[in-house]
Design a protein that fits this description.
Elements lengths: L2 H6 L1 H22 L8 H12 L7 H25 L3 H23 L8 H25 L10 H9 L11 H24 L2 H23 L10
Length: 231
């Protein structure tokens, strides 16, 4: 398979990561005390609410998520230094580490305390925020326009500003709509599973998607030595 064909599949792989983001944030927000592990903008806003006196927000959870996401992002950045411009290697390493972190989280979900004890909840926030930080840094390193996998605000802004009501250029319109839809789909599936099945079920789906994506990354990039052309 040529590098060009492999690169053409890169957006599809990142869309899978966007679905996983929605799933994981559904788990964290609905079961870990109204905290996001991938949407750091939301956590900053929560901290502002808490500072203003909102009593139903636990700022310490947002602080933990922010700190762990930063550490995960730093780890993802080191991967880009280690593997240079090889997108396949960067994504493979990042997804492998992310899968391990989600697997440990899933194991905790089957534990005696599950997500009822504060200590366990904080452990899950740590693990999932680390995983999302790694994913976000990897997505940034492979640099596919409009597919950051954890941030949709800029994608929506670009879509609207370049629509027929804006500049009319409509660049990457389908990719942007698909990215928004992927995040929504992940959040819907994750929310439905958390609310009507179990947290473990949502995490198991996320782990399955991560494993499938890792296999796909390896398969499409194995014969593309650099896989570094702009998408």
């Amino acid at each position: 398979m040529s590098t060009i064909r492999a690169t053409a599949r890169l957006p599809v792989l990142l869309l899978m990561l966007a679905v996983i983001t929605g799933l994981v944030d559904a788990v964290s927000f609905l079961s870990l005390g109204h905290v996001f592990v991938s949407n750091m903008t939301g956590n900053i806003v929560f901290l502002g609410f808490a500072a203003a006196g909102a009593g139903n927000i636990a700022p310490q959870r947002s602080l933990v998520a922010l700190a762990m996401f930063a550490i995960g992002s730093a780890a993802g950045g080191r991967m880009s230094v280690r593997f240079g411009l090889h997108r396949g290697h960067i994504l493979s390493a990042a997804i492998a580490l992310e899968a391990v972190l989600v697997l440990v989280t899933l194991a905790a979900a089957f534990g005696h305390f599950a997500f009822t004890a504060d200590a366990v909840s904080y452990a899950e926030i740590v693990l999932l925020a680390l995983a999302m930080g790694v994913q976000n840094a990897a997505a940034r390193s492979v640099a596919v326009p409009d597919l950051i996998t954890t941030v949709i605000t800029l994608t929506m802004t670009a879509f609207a500003s370049e629509s027929l009501l804006g500049t009319g250029t409509n660049r990457n319109a389908m990719r942007r709509v698909t990215a928004i839809g992927a995040m929504f789909l992940g959040a819907f599936i994750g929310g439905a599973l958390v609310l009507h099945a179990s947290v473990a079920a949502a995490l198991a789906i996320a782990l399955g998607l991560l494993t499938s994506t890792a296999i796909a990354v390896h398969w499409v990039s194995r014969n593309a030595p650099t896989w570094a052309q702009p998408a």
